[in-house]
Write a structure and sequence with these properties.
15% of the residues lie in helices and 27% in strands. The protein has four helices and 37 strands.
Length: 344
Amino acid sequence: MPDRRFFQHTGPVSLADLAERAGFAVSDARPGDLMIETASPLSKAGREAISYLSDRRYLEDLKQTGAGAVFVGEKLAEHAPAGAVVILSAEPQAAWSRVAAVLHPVIGLSNTGFVHPDARLEDDVYLAPGVVVGQGARIGSGTRIGANTVIGPGVSIGRQCVIAANVTIEFALVGDRVQLAANAVIGSAGFGVAAGAGGLVDIPQLGRVILQDGVSVGAGTTIDRGAWDDTVIGENTKLDNQVQIGHNVVMGRNCVMAAHCGISGSVTFGDNVQCGGAVGIKDHVRIGNNVQLAARSGVMRDIEDGEIVGGSPAQPIKDWMREIAWVRNQIAAERDAKARQKDR
């Protein structure tokens, strides 16, 4: 269930009413009076949830889901469990996205002033001019917040944090002793779209960002909230300037990431990972403990514990260096051959 600190919950609502509000037809022969409370992935759905299947890779999740209702294409509908109301759709992910937006609209900033009366600040919190603190936010003692920073509704910030100017924090739980440099953006919507009949549909991002104790985030760095599960940055991890962390990334403790790295969604890091500048990692990759990624590495596969890799696509560092040496030797040999031919 999406966190009530950040998302409204408009349910429970009957499936028939939900169909009218979200613009879909219930194609199942059973009546649409099922009460729906949440939009959920197949693997986490209970009877009160509505879910979807758009990718055959998750067919087993469909067969085992406890969802009360499921959007699914006609060719895969036979695999839905007997207890679920099947909603045939040519665009199941887009249809589910519209439903999720109806069931869980975000809680936005109010116009009650710079610090909402429902916000709770402990002693010795410093707010510079222009700071906005939303409804239900919590800020721990000793925390310093720079000018024009926005703390969204429901955000929790621990003690002894240092947050610079023009930072935006939303849909996030921040630990103690966290440092956020200027213009960092924490908790914005992750990049998720689904194809619909009328064009691309934004997929609601219903998760959070969790920054554990001692995390440092550089200037201009962005960390997207999870699509459903949380984006997590582990204790004492240090991110440089202008790093992009996609939704559902889980990063371990004591990791270091240099500037301009781009991490796609659902990447999992172990502890003590070191990333050089401008590393790029594709989605759903696992990076093991104590891994080192050389600058500009393009990671397309899982990396096992303790590996040191470089290049694009990334490979063991010794293989990469041999490859570079071979290319240089070939270039040198061609240059020498041309010089000898010219001398003749």
